[in-house]
Amino acid sequence: MSRPDKKNYLITGLTVAILSFVLLFVGIKFILGNEIAAKNIIAFTSFSILAGVTASLLVLYELRITFISFIIGLTVGFILMYRTFLRETSDWKDLIGLLSVFIFTVTSLGIGILAQLGYHFFRKWEKKYKI
Fold it and tell me: Does the pLDDT at position 78 exceed 70?
């Protein structure tokens, strides 16, 4: 692995982690107007680190299809979280918004893994039969 590749996956992971933390913090603190406790900071940091490490590993192992699917799911999840925070009138809007981020992220990661696996088997089959 060349030196720029190492920087690339580290920068990607840090960017995803920092953006995830900032988006969660801004959504809860400023849009919902909830007080932030130490438990919230720990939860935001844990999710952000997990998302950053996942993105970093996907870039490191060159799983492009899975990475793109993961980033799309994370983006859609945050968009739906903000939409829920702004438009929902029930008392459960904070929980619904956060669950949408988690569910879309995990679902898109699973779909990306399946798509990457299908692509891998297709390439293997293509090589075997020289199509």
Answer: yes
